[in-house]
Amino acid sequence: MTQESTPLRLEPVTNATGTASDRISLTYEERTRSRLLAQLESGTEAAVVLPRGMRLRGGDRLQAPDGAIVEVIAAIEPLLEARIGDATQLARAAYHLGNRHVAIEIREGMLRIAYDAVLARMLSNLGLDSSQVDAPFEPEGGAYGHSHAHAADGARLAPVIHEYRRS
């Protein structure tokens, strides 16, 4: 009779310094789950434990009980990328997607969503050119969500809503 090993427990950590000892590649859906069994790049099985409602972003860090740091990588996944040069039409498309509670990544002149053929037709009917791409998915966190997404150089990709202040 073999004894199963206990997965390494990983929890979110802020202000972690130093080099990560391992990495974990997760899809957007996996990064939104509060409990997840996954495998680190090293092959170690890990249990990711998040507070309810928290979403991980690429570049976030998790910590093991022994203090080891694991970097979160936004996995490559199939997305629908929709483009149009008209800002009003782009806003209209974002409105219709948001009205359907679709997670949306907003970039200059384009939107990205999880691939969906029905939504691809809707975006086409709104005048957007769309294509399937394989890329990491980092959708908006919502007006009251906390976005911890960082660019490769460590700069924040987008402020969160409570960082906007009236002068």
Low-pLDDT runs of 5+ residues are 146-167
Q: Structural class, judged by helices and strands?
A: alpha+beta
Numbering strands along the chain, what is their spatial order in the largest sheet?
A: 2-6-5-1-4-3
User: What's the main sheet like?
Assistant: 6 strands, mixed
Instruction: Note the beta-strand portion.
Output: 25-35%
**What is the CATH architecture annotation of the largest domain?**
Sandwich
Helix and strand element order:
EEHEEEEEHEEHE
Number of domains: 2
Number of helices: 3
The CATH topology name of the largest domain reads: HSP40/DNAj peptide-binding domain
Please report the total strand number as a whole number. Answer: 10
* Shape by Cα distribution: elongated
Highest-level CATH class of the largest domain: Mainly Beta
Report what the structure shows.
With 167 residues, this protein is an alpha+beta fold. The protein has two domains: 8-74, Sandwich (HSP40/DNAj peptide-binding domain); 76-136, Alpha-Beta Plaits (2-Layer Sandwich). It is 16% helix and 32% strand. It has three helices and ten strands, in the order E-E-H-E-E-E-E-E-H-E-E-H-E. The chain has a six-stranded mixed sheet. Strand 5 (61-63) and strand 6 (69-74) form a beta hairpin.
